[in-house]
Amino acid sequence: MDASTWVAKRPTPSALAQLFDNKAFLIAVCLFPAVGLLLVFLTYPLGLGIYLAFTDTEIGGNGHWIGLENFEYLLTDRIFINSVWNTMFYTFVATVGKFALGLWLALLLNHHIPFQSAIRAIILLPYIVPTVLSAIAFWWIYDPQFSIISYVVVDQLHLRDKYFDFLGEPWPARWSLIVANIWRGIPFVAITLLAGLQTISPSLYEAAMLDGASPWQQFRRITAPLLMPILAIVMTFSVLFTFTDFQLVYAITRGGPINSTHLMATLAFQRGIPGAQLGEGAAIAVAMIPFLIFATLFSYYALGNRKWQQGSDND
Amino acid sequence: MATVSVRAVRKAFGSTEVLHGVDVEVEDGEFVILVGPSGCGKSTLLRMIAGLENVTRGEIAIGGRVVNNVAPKERDIAMVFQNYALYPHMTVHDNMAFSLSLLNAPKEVIAAKVGRAAEILGLQPYLQRYPRQLSGGQRQRVAMGRAIVRDPQVFLFDEPLSNLDAKLRVAMRAEIKDLHQRLGTTTIYVTHDQIEAMTMADKIVVMNGGNVEQMGGPLDLYDRPDNLFVAGFIGSPAMNFLKGEIRGGAFHTGDVALPLPLQVPSGAQDGRRVIYGIRPEHLLLDAAGVAATVHVTEPTGSETQVIMNLGTTQVVGAFRERITQKPGQSLHIAPDPALVHLFDEKTGTRLS
Question: Running DSSP on this structure, what letter comes out for residue A165?
């Protein structure tokens, strides 16, 4: 057969090809892994946790449905109430610190400075190190006997005659944990806000400069409003991560001294696993949910949703 | 309103010099267009006038005051950017009022000035919209409104029409020219489109490779281009160039002979190698002319452009007459001797 006698005819696809061309089949096949994973590793544990919160289950024993009894008890439990206040204080102060320093770093990095990419990589380091490792490092930094800060301030600079007791008193312990959390959280905030800053067209700043805006006015009238949508998302995530923080606190203080640094997450673990009161631990964990929903809604609606981002109707 | 003087200005980025000593004088109220191919330094020059780039050497004066070390906001200029640079989080009204609000202008002043700019540009129905909700042409107008509100000494435009579609570009061209006629503000406008330059400018500055090639009125550049670059850049379709030499009172290329210009330049003696320039619209149908072979015809209705082979050179002609010749057939043409240009073959400069 030569080119002049050849007639174009599409070959019939194989049965397998036809199956994969079937849209319903394809949707089912593509959704299955994701839905399966979510059901097994998210929905089931969450559902189980919520169920346990309404029972008196202990480790090694079957519990009974006791309704709201766990929650009623927790409302009278000073340690629990304290942990709620601690969590809110910890979240609020650490978030403010992370965003103040993270935004400052992002603004610096958004300018052309020497060794920019190297500095960017260094800033990411705290985020790359496993949390427990950095927690252990902080534990040493805060050690009453071997603290490097005490060594420098007392033995080298002779500014004090007594070693710092970072973790032995409630308030120093709380502030120490907050500092560790801020240190750990800055990279996430700085890098995401830097990404946000880089989406703002440089010509907007040039236009503002010609319009007569000073650097501060450029920040307040151009940068801040344009960064707000991304800031809202980053803030939401940051608040969620901080509110549910467990690793840092558990590795450094385990909630001590005298339960003064317990967050809701560490208290839930303490009561549920070492304390064997699974139902009560689950109730503490479930009690976090309303706070998280409120924080999410607040940052989403109060900061995120901007009129100028929506709609492109050209009527 | 003010004059703008650019004197022996050089610009270097690191060790790369992109402007090699540029002189431009802009009269008060004049509409000057900087035109040239990409990378010729025209936008850099505009940004230096605006104060967005430093001057490496030379000086720039606005209204007689040297502004080399004056901050952009103190120069009393307004600029329209290629991408408009509208503040996306502000309404049309707030975009235009931004510069005034930074000066804490009273509400009535802002309302009056924004209202006037909106009226000039027909933007009143859109004042409460956000830039996202506007079409390209409307955004362009808001960018101009932002400039008008400032009442500046000089308007600077950086390729303002290049993001618009062809039809809108023609409409906005007329609108900008009309605006300049009404406001009379000194305007410097950058474009790579020679048609924009021809249609809008009082004076065109043709730039190439960081140098000014020629400066003058649009028709001066069209009628008497100083060199091959300007001759080829100004005019559409572009001028035809034929290489050859002058012999016995005529121009010879291959075995084709063409008449010399009516006023023979003094340098055009016998035996000189020259480049013969003739615009497509100055080639005439003439039964007594030379024969060219038709290659492609492109009728546009008002005229027909014909790409044809004249000896070994391909030339373009634009004829008012309807062309009936098919590809491969021959067409007899003759250049209008009053409108022929001669350039030196080596230096590319005009013989005069």
Answer: -
**Per-residue pLDDT tens digits for A152-172:** 888 888 888 888 888 888 898
Q: Which two tokens stand for residue B230?
A: 């300007």
Nearest by CB to B133, from A211, A306, A313: name it.
Answer: A313
In contact, B52 and B158? CB cutoff 8 Å: no
Cα separation, B242 vs A120, whole angstroms: 58
Domains of chain A, CATH where assigned: 16-52 (no CATH), 69-306 (1.10.3720.10)
- ipTM of the complex, rounded to two decimals: 0.83
pTM: 0.80
- Classified as helix, coil or strand, B291 is strand
Instruction: Find the mean pLDDT for residues A54-79.
Output: 87
For chain A, the residues whose C-beta falls within 8 A of a C-beta of chain B are 201, 203-204, 206-213, 217, 221-222, 225-226, 306-314
Average pLDDT over residues B14-19: 91
| DSSP secondary structure string for all residues of B114-126 | HHHHHHHHT-GGG
> B130 and A308: CB-CB below 8 Å?
yes
pLDDT grade, residue A305 (50/70/90)?
Answer: low
Give the separation between CA B330 and CA B32, rounded to whole angstroms. Answer: 44
- Residue type, position A140, single letter: W
- Section B226-246 average pLDDT: 92
To which residue do tokens 């300049």 refer? B180
Edge-to-edge strands, sheet with B16-26: B16-26, B4-13, B57-62, B65-66
